[in-house]
Write a structure and sequence with these properties.
Oligomer: single chain
Subcellular location: Endoplasmic reticulum membrane
Radius of gyration: 32 Å
Strand content: 5-15%
Low-confidence stretches: 57-73, 158-163, 390-401, 458-476, 619-643, 798-804, 879-883
Family: Belongs to the PIGG/PIGN/PIGO family. PIGO subfamily.
Helix content: 55-70%
Shape: globular
Number of strands: 9
Membrane topology: Multi-pass membrane protein
InterPro entries: Alkaline_phosphatase_core_sf, Phosphodiest/P_Trfase, PIG-O_N, PIGG/GPI7_C, PIGO/GPI13
Distance between the termini: 11 Å
Structural class: alpha/beta
Organism: Acorus calamus (Sweet flag)
Mean pLDDT: 80
Strand order of the largest sheet: 4-3-5-1-6-7-2-9-8
Length: 957
Amino acid sequence: MEGSQDSKWVRIRVFFLIFVLHSLSIYLFTRGFLLTRTELSDSFSSCSDIPDPPCTVHHRRFNGSDDSSGVGGGCWTPPVFHRIVIIVLDALRFDFVAPSAFFEEVKPWMDKLTVLQRLALEESSSAKIFKAIADPPTTSLLRLKGLTTGGLPTFIDVGNSFGAPAITEDNLIHQLVSNGKRVLMMGDDTWLQVFPHHFQESYPFPSFNVKDLHVVDDGVMEHLIPSLYKDDWDVLIAHFLGVDHAGHIFGVDSTPMIEKLEQYNNVLEKVVEALKNQSGPGQPHENTLLLVMGDHGQTLNGDHGGGTAEEVETSLFAMSFGSPPDSVPPNLDSRTCKFGPDGEKMCFSSMQQLDFAATISALLGIPSPFGSIGRVNPELYALSAKTWNIQNCDASNCKVCSNLEAWMTNYMNVLCINCWQVKRYIDLYSATSVIGFSKEDMLHLADVYGRIHSSWSNAINAMSLEEDGIPEEIHNNSVYVLQQKIDASSNFLAYIAEIARLKWTEFDLKLMGAGLCMFFVSLLVHFLFIIRVVRLCKFSCTSIWNFRWSCMVSSLLVATRASSFLSNSYILEEGKVASFLLATTGILSFRGSVNNGKLTIETLLLLLFNILLGCSMDDRFSKQAIGSAYMSAFNISISGINISHFIWTVFCETSPLLFLSMLALLLYRCTSGMSHWGGYRRFFVNGTIVSYVLIGVHWILESNSMNFPEGLQYFGRIFIPLVIYASGCGLLLMLVIAQIFVKKGVTDQAEGVVIDTVAMSSACSPIILVLSGRQGPFVALISILGVWCIIRLSNVALKDSTGVHGVDPVSVTQWSLLAACLFFYTGHRCSFDGLRFGAAFIGFDEFDLIRQGTLLFIETFGFSHIIPILSLPFLVTLPHQVSCKTDTKGRFFLKLAQVFLTYGFITAITTAFTMVCVTIQRRHLMVWGLFAPKFLFDVVGLILTDVLICLASLFYM
């Protein structure tokens, strides 16, 4: 294994073999685990579909010339609204709309949409506030898909959130267009991507630049109010994005967020005024429904994608313009009420977003989407006075029906068709999908549906009275009978929604099992290669004993962390677990130093370092902790300091520049002592330091405390990051060229690898620092401190009597735990709401999927994967570890291979436990909100680790 090119490929081919095995096993497992539900793209509802009896009677009355609703155009159900205005406020939290009286603590962002609260209070019979519950994952595209199809998009669809493919299955927009409704859209251009040929007129605006708060909103406001005075549309959709973007960049508790909410309140006042002015008899909005709604919520730091209450709870405000209707029966009323400070009674209702498509279809008199499994919401359906029309009372009743009986009869008829539509979809889905609902579920559904069918009959025979044990006089009460029918239908639809949420995703256990088996085979191969490398190192007996002891400690640490993934609570606290285990290694080192009477400064620094990490991750980076603006500014919190104080503001502005200067000085001082740098120093060290200077200028020009000219701000915001990206890529390219063609004149292979490692790390660092924001330099400095402590402590861990050094597995484990800590310390989480989307637009205003995806990927994994793996050779190459002259070139590269193999094995072990976890928990309530995102982050991290180790082995070995 001495220096030929052939021997190099012999040394590194094992890394590529492990990479291939991991990739194949993950591919098989993912194909089995993340299968999407079968989309019935060829099945569409139409007016010609005839519902099963007894719904057929009601269907015939509402279809064609027999329509008596007075609105016209009825299909399955009588239409009760001519027009609908849908205003979508992206990421509209529930507490943005609901009065602050419903919450224990009043926050600055509450009670800003006062126009909606006032209308719900003053016109409670025709205006309501709903808490709308979304289904995770709470990404915008999935919520639009769920709202319009009435189905439950599966987790694998979250990968399409940036590509926005057209929706091919039946949906509300398709039904609107197919039934002659004219749809006008303005705002988020995602609507045009998912419904490319559906809108009669549209005004789309780019949606992915989260740094822009105004372009989309200003475009919508330009067209919204004028459109309300036109008569060339039936459904108007206006999708605002400012609140969502303000949350991503600044957080909920921020001035831009409050300004956005106040701006929306002014817009909504103008919208309501325009609609009211035209709501008189014979005017365009006499029979119009206004909906102001969110597609999902957001956490306090402005993120969404997961399944927490803040993310799934959004708002829906509905108002009917026209004569006010009566109130729904108490059994169908989900209102929660409180008395405000002035004694006024304030209420809100609750509904599932799953019910949106079915309810809007019923209100407009069009067929529900074929795949909808939602229920027509009674409170939203009752907002129109036309649903209380006495003409629609059952003809079998010879008595005059009350308004309540008339409405309940209408609603019962709507639910009858609703149940029939859902049942036929479930039957076809189970018959055509590869793995449908279980036989037991289908039998139970058929039984429940059969009993509902029989209950639709108006005649109740004496046998059923005897079996139920209910007095006959109660059955003579038509309201009671109607209520029983409505309850039975609602329970049937709720049961279908429940089993769909539990079993919607189709798991192929054979593929999952094959993937797991292959992964465990790869672990065995990985372990055998580590054993072979260790044996080739030929340690002495003392070293072997120490090595085995270190292996036991390392195995215990890795097993403890990996097994914690079997619990959802520990996954939520994964950063604290990693910090605790890293602190445990520091305590072990401290105990060993005390026993040996050699207490070192490194031991104390490692303990202090862990205290800093643990305290920082305690609360600040939880979902409820801190706004993105502060996190992007600087990540140090000091107890008792008011963050709005002038001194603290100056500190936050200047400290990143100070730490960046310290980082540049540290790089200069460390490389100045090396005698064989040559051209490396000119191209890499000086180039990196110049990039650091540009980063500082970029932050200064972006500062809110200084009013620079607009042109200069644009220069700092766009041009400088582009220069940093270009210089970083150029440094990496020159580094590869120098590695191939330039001889460094280094006789000691270890010193050559040190030079290569420093050059590689310095070339990558500017891009990662500028993407990480102002926290980047401080994170880099504390990571260097942690690395220094680990390396200094490792040089006494494995020494034999001849002075030959080995690689301590505990040191590699500490390195891995440090990388995990840095992932969470920088504000990330294993969930889609943990992605910092603002980083993807540093240097750019326009969205490009590949470009922005690459930047977001680098920012997410920069400090936790890229820098740690590329810096692994430091565990072998630093001077105090390689000073022994008996260390031959072959043994040096064996130790380098051992470091890479051990680090990759630790990562693979944790990923294996994650795969086992999601297999066990695949039917868990939090599988898509927690376990599946954790699985995706871990497998992506493992593949990235394998790729980086392969590239590092090519470069360093």
